[in-house]
Amino acid sequence: xxxxxxxxxxxxxxxxxxxxxxxxxxxxxxxxxxxxxxxxxxxxxxxxxxxxxxxxxxxxxxxxxxxxxxxxxxxxxxxxxxxxxxxxxxxxxxxxxxxxxxxxxxxxxxxxxxxxxxxxxxxxxxxxxxxxxxxxxxxxxxxxxxxxxxxxxxxxxxxxxxxxxxxxxxxxxxxxxxxxxxxxxxxxxxxxxxxxxxxxxxxxxxxxxxxxxxxxxxxxxxxxxxxxxxxxxxxxxxxxxxxxxxxxxxxxxxxxxxxxxxxxxxxxxxxxxxxxxxxxxxxxxxxxxxxxxxxxxxxxxxxxxxxxxxxxxxxxxxxxxxxxxxxxxxxxxxxxxxxxxxxxxxxxxxxxxxxxxxxxxxxxxxxxxxxxxxxxxxxxxxxxxxxxxxxxxxxxxxx
Length: 399
Hints:
The structure is a single chain. A two-stranded antiparallel sheet has the order 1-2. It has 20 helices and two strands. It starts with a helix and ends with a helix. By secondary structure, it is mainly alpha-helical. Helix 2 packs across helix 5 and helix 16 crosses helix 18. It has helices at about 1-10, 15-25, 30-55, 60-80, 85-95, 95-115, 130-135, 140-165, 180-190, 200-215, 220-230, 235-255, 260-270, 280-290, 290-300, 305-315, 325-340, 345-355, 355-375, 385-395, and strands spanning about 120, 175-180.
């Protein structure tokens, strides 16, 4: 019989409260006295709701308040009864109409308190009153969908905190991060099988990737990860398993693919991982570790003069150096005047080797200076090349 009642309810689009009320009357569950009590309580509740969200004296507010209170009672009844109209009718008989309205309101307040996504930390949260104003006009189906989503978010956050605590990062040290990134970092740390027993900072992350590329995933890394999952509470297995699949299927193939430059892979991976202490100093270490070729060519120099010297060498098909002697500079001027300048080689170098965070700024620098370089270094009036050399001394590194 309960299944039949739920089946019939699917084809009735009235609010669940109205369906339960009608069923209760037909089944003799709700007496005339009870119906009269509901009729007395309803208007009182509507006025209270209208005052809370606006004013009781405007007709639209009262009409909206009626919709809100019916939705709140319907939400409470449907969830408490599991969609069984008989149980819902008995609930109406045994409790007051306003208690059912308050029950629906408390359910929405609990929904509001749940996480809106899988981020952990200080987030800007919608006010409870604004949330209730919106959700008291929504359907029970919307509520169930949102509750399921937010329960999943909470499970992800709980799993992430478990992994973080295992690696020495208590919740108090974590703020405003995607919880999945913490799980992914923990998985990668264990897969790498190194001595690190904490969530990595930027430089440790770069070193970890380099170690994996060089040695692959070691057997001890697999054992370490298996032991970690064995200790993992069962409630966290589904969430952690999903992130492990992403690491195995999406990240490791890129890390182990030696044909891809590491500096192109790190910007792709970094947003998916949690790196502790990622301040200015760590950002510098991160950039420094992105490309060994970049470090080798630039000799660690990142000032404009050194970089322009390198770009200028590339523009005339000369081995790039961050500084030139006067003789080398004059030779360079001669090549520029006989063969011209090429913009593209420096741009290709930037995209292939420069740290990802610097690439846009370096492209802008080169494009901005390029026309000025052409004009200054190929000036027909400067037959001796002395003015061109003076320009290079001012804007590049000439020793």
